Structures are given as C-alpha cells and as structure tokens.
Amino acid sequence: MMPGFEMGKMNIRMRNIFIMFWLLLASLVFTQSCTKNNSNGSGCVVCANGGVCIGKVCTCSIGYEGSDCTTLSATKFLGSWNVTEKGTNSDTSKYGLAIQSIPGSANKVLIRNFYNFFTLDVSGTIVADTLYIPVQQLDGKIVIGTGYISVGSSSQTDGQVSVRYEVIDTATQTINSFHYAEGDLSAASKWKR
Predict the structure, then answer these.
(1) How far is CA 141 from CA 83, 116, 119, 145, 175, in A?
(2) Among 109, 141, 106, 136, which residue's Cα sits nearest to residue 125?
C-alpha cells in the first residue's frame, strides 16, 4: 500500500469524527433551546416538574399536565362529589364523598366515604383523566375499580366521573358490581359536583 493512501484514510476518519462532534454539539444546543422560555410561540415554555419538551410541546411526568406541566392531574378530581349508583346487589343509592390529595405525592389521592360504607379512606392513583383504585381490603370488604372524568367546557370544577368498580364482601363472598366486569347489567357509578 502506498503511504499516501493510508494517510488519506486517516484524514477521512478525522473529518468524520469532526463532523460527528459538531452534529452532536448542534443537537445538544437544539435540545437545550427547547427548554428556554420563548413567549413568541417559536419554542417551548419551560416544562416544569420533570416534563420534557418534544417538538415544541411539553410531555409531562405522571401526575402533571398542562402546557408547561405545572398543573397537578389530581386537581380536577379533588373536592366533594355527589354520587348516584345502583349495583348488582344494591338498590339505587345517593350519597356524598370527598377526594383529597396525599401531601408530597403528585398523583395519589384518598377517597372519603367511598361506597357510602367505608370508614377508612380508599386510596387511588390519578393518571391524566383516569382514577385507578387498586385492589385493597378495608372494613371486611375488597374494592377495585377505575374512573374516568369528563371535564365540562367552562371549568375543571363542573366535571363528571364515571366509576366502574366492585366490592366483594370477604365474609359472604358476595360481589356488588358497578359495571366493573364487561357484560354485567349494572351501570357505572356517576359522580357529579
């Protein structure tokens, strides 16, 4: 091989490394520019609470939402609700319940007076517009469910939550379902402000 040929390969490698370095540097600059506050709409606002700017839009961490990830997803669920429900093993019932946040958690909540029965608070997790009620045993019963909020057009305080859940009595094994299982003839529990 000719010595000049080897040197030419070396120059090409160096040039490629140099180009890769500048491309990497440029991508870092563009990625960082996405987090700058830009009020003229040409870039992302600052994405708070661990949110990431992708394509000039904030993608928020679980528990947060909004254009800049500063709104807790649980906020629209918090407060008092008027419940109307009829289960597979219960008559139509109307009662009130309350949802409160757990301090220090972005998406964990406690539901007070759930099922108009529990003396202990039922725990839940909020992800976007969904309330997840994990399996838990309280006061001699097992509860599990999922609720979806539909927010009214005027504000987040005039929404409605449709909750599909079931309660199992641990002593009798009786199941009271609120359209939790597909095919049961009950309706989901309706929560309104």
Answers:
(1) 20, 13, 11, 13, 10
(2) 109
Distance CA 33, CA 30 (A): 5
Choose the weakest-confidence range: 113-122, 155-164, 166-175. 155-164
Q: Three-state secondary structure along the chain? A: CCHHHHHHHHHHHHHHHHHHHHHHHHHHHHHHHCCCCCCCCCCCCCCCCCCEEECCEEECCCCEECCCCCEEHHHHHCEEEEEEECCCCCCCEEEEEEEEECCCCCCEEEEECHHHCCCCCEEEEEECCEEEEEEEEECCEEEEEEEEEECCCCCCCCCEEEEEEEEEECCCCCEEEEECCCCCCCCCEEEEC
Contacts of 75 (CB under 8 A, 6+ apart): 156
* pTM for the whole structure: 0.75
CATH topology of domain 74-192: Lipocalin (2.40.128)
Q: pLDDT (tens digit, 9 = 90+) per residue, 123-167?
A: 999 999 999 999 999 999 999 999 999 876 545 556 899 999 999
* All structural domains of the chain with their residue ranges: 3-71, 74-192
